[in-house]
């Protein structure tokens, strides 16, 4: 039977971590988070400026939020 000291000498990695893959994944998660945050801020600012939500129709407003106008 092997002793604890002998087993401690033979440390075998239980989990292998690919640092490059981890960094890439973290970078992508951060990028997505920043993108969602910025898009949310831009949508909120557009709603405030237009006084309408996305795709909202209002008879009192001549313009539409999406910038579409009849030709």
TrEMBL record:
Stored Pfam families: Transposase_mut
Listed InterPro entries: Transposase_mutator
Keyword Repeat: no
GO biological process, one term: DNA transposition
KW Lipid biosynthesis (keyword) present: no
Keyword set, alphabetical order: DNA recombination, DNA-binding, Transposition
Entry superkingdom: Bacteria
A GO molecular function held by the record: DNA binding
Family: Belongs to the transposase mutator family.
Function statement: Required for the transposition of the insertion element.
Name under which the protein is recorded: Transposase, Mutator family
Native organism: Desulfovibrio legallii
């Amino acid at each position: 039977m092997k002793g604890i000291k002998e087993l401690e000498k033979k440390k075998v990695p239980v989990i292998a971590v690919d640092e490059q893959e981890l960094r890439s994944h973290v970078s992508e998660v951060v990028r997505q988070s920043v993108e969602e945050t910025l898009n949310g801020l831009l949508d909120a600012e557009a709603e405030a400026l237009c006084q309408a939500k996305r795709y909202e129709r209002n008879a009192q407003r001549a313009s539409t939020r999406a910038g579409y106008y009849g030709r």
